[in-house]
């Protein structure tokens, strides 16, 4: 009895054909735009010591407690497949001794991440992100510029219509201390209605309750105070400067006081690009300022701001998948012409022309293969053409054909 065909692990998928082209298109556009903004690309390992993420995401977060792929390696060390990459970038800054030189550093990254969560539309257990981090800049202009770069990517991809930037401030340490006390008072008064997870959060990190997806928690959160009344004058001025810079950059903004980040090293700006075109899970890009994370990694206090975006979700918003490049088919008629055909094939490729040759078959079979590849043209080398130093050029769209000098074939197809 034959073995059943193997399938990908639940929550993962193969990127083939149109899926891969859309995926590649998103990353290529982001890479090109971020280069315009002066970002260099970094690549960090896809697995790190578990402590890197426990420090950065917090022990009480759902990602750390429920979703990380962690395992003990053969040396007895606890290793985790990265669930996000901001922590890895900050760890790399510290590990490579870059915290004291040439700051700020503007970093772009792209690659796979891993979370054990329920697969749903646009969400996978192996998924891919693009991200941007400004490391070592405390000014509100850094917040605004990194957000503007993200908006530029959405515009370049043609998916900015229907996407809204929602933004909030988390204030400075003094603001958050006052706000946290107000939240503790509010949630303590409603403690009986909180979920078990949120009752734990109330003891350890009350701001995380604001992120809860539990329906009962959401009703209590709806009446919770916002941070705005607790902002210091300095924190309010920082937020106003970010908003003014965003207006200058031409980025439309909607304030949302419910956007929060629970850990102490987050401060000031928090934002999400959201859309209603992906159902309930509508965030396509999110980020904020995290001035204490590098210090958590063992480095000096280093102000940072950045964002991450899901490649799969961005690809879902594309109006159309970029088409595959249409090749030129090189067709030898007989074995004697094959060597010349191969030389022509490589000349085309060296000139930047996508070119294909069928490995076997007569003229009819090779032309059928050219049509299946959606070739735009065919160069046919027969015995007579080769003897005369010429080649038959067929325009497969127009249905026309002509005999041209072999030496002109490449220039004709690159014009």
Automatic annotation (TrEMBL):
Residue stretches making up the Aminoacyl-transfer RNA synthetases class-II family profile domain: 10-332
Query: Where located?
Result: Cytoplasm
One function term, GO molecular function aspect: histidine-tRNA ligase activity
Q: Which reaction does it catalyse?
A: tRNA(His) + L-histidine + ATP = L-histidyl-tRNA(His) + AMP + diphosphate + H(+)
Q: Does the keyword Cytoplasm apply?
A: yes
Alphabetized UniProt keyword annotations: Aminoacyl-tRNA synthetase, ATP-binding, Cytoplasm, Ligase, Nucleotide-binding, Protein biosynthesis
Q: Does the keyword Amino-acid biosynthesis apply?
A: no
Q: Which InterPro entries match?
A: aa-tRNA-synth_II, aa-tRNA-synth_II/BPL/LPL, Anticodon-bd, Anticodon-bd_dom_sf, His-tRNA-ligase, HisRS-like_core, HisRS/HisZ, HisRS_anticodon
What EC number(s) would the UniProt record show?
6.1.1.21
The UniProt family comment states: Belongs to the class-II aminoacyl-tRNA synthetase family.
Quaternary structure and interacting proteins, as annotated: Homodimer.
Name of the protein in its database record: Histidine--tRNA ligase
Query: What is the native source organism of this protein?
Result: Falsiroseomonas frigidaquae
